[in-house]
Amino acid sequence: MKSGRVFESILVKYKRAWERRDPRLAMELFTPDATYREDPFDERPMRGLGEIRDYWARVPRFQKNIRFTHGPVFRLGQSRVWGAEWSARYTKVQTGESIRLRGVMFCELRRDKIRRFWEYWHVRGGKPSFRAKTLKNMSG
User: N or C end of the chain: which has fewer CB within 10 A?
Assistant: First the structure.
């Protein structure tokens, strides 16, 4: 399978994992040594499946009615890095507030998995439900 098709299949699974709020499915996307940077201002990316799983496990607590779409995929030169613009909508569980996000993601692939993930996004309609850097401050 060519890398562009591999990345497109990753995006399909990413969409399914987020919309179904399924951390187990999300973990199938990443290598064991993956890094995940959700905010360009994070002091450090999340590292390894444990930290990434903790992040994805927060989604069911804070988001519902999630809809994710992406645009065409692109490759950064001859590298193993692929990207796509994306947009998402969801409802905040606690308040019912409607949130819209638009961003771009970059993924360095190792075979059919993500080794490095980083994204940049902007929110409309309020504040996002949470950000990765707040995980350490959240209880239970």
Answer: C
pLDDT in tens, 48-61: 999 999 999 988 88
Supply the pTM of this predicted model. 0.88
Which residues span the domain enclosing 27?
3-135
In a domain, residue 140? The reply is no
Report the 3 state secondary structure along the chain: CCHHHHHHHHHHHHHHHHHCCCHHHHHCCEEEEEEEECCCCCCCCEEHHHHHHHHHHHHHHHEEEEEEEEEEEEECCCCCEEEEEEEEEEEECCCCCEEEEEEEEEEEEECCEEEEEEEEEEEECCCCCCCHHHHHHCCC
pLDDT in tens, 75-91: 998 889 999 999 999 99
Instruction: Classify residue 90: in a domain, yes or no.
Output: yes
